[in-house]
Amino acid sequence: MNGRTVEENLQYAVSLEIAGPMAMWTDPASGSTPTSYPAPTWSAVKGIFESVLYLKSSQIIPIRVEIMEPIQYQNFVQNYSGPLRKTEQIREKNAFQIRMNALRNVCYRLYATPVGVPENYPSEGGTTTNGAHQYQVRFERRLCRGQCFSTPCLGLKDFPASYWGPVRNPLKRPADVNMVVPSMLVTPFRDIEGQGGFDPIFDQNVEIFHGTLDYRFDGTVIREFQPREAREQC
Question: From 3.50.50.60, 3.30.70.2660, 3.90.76.10, 3.40.50.1820, which CATH number describes the 7-73+103-221 domain?
Answer without folding.
Answer: 3.30.70.2660
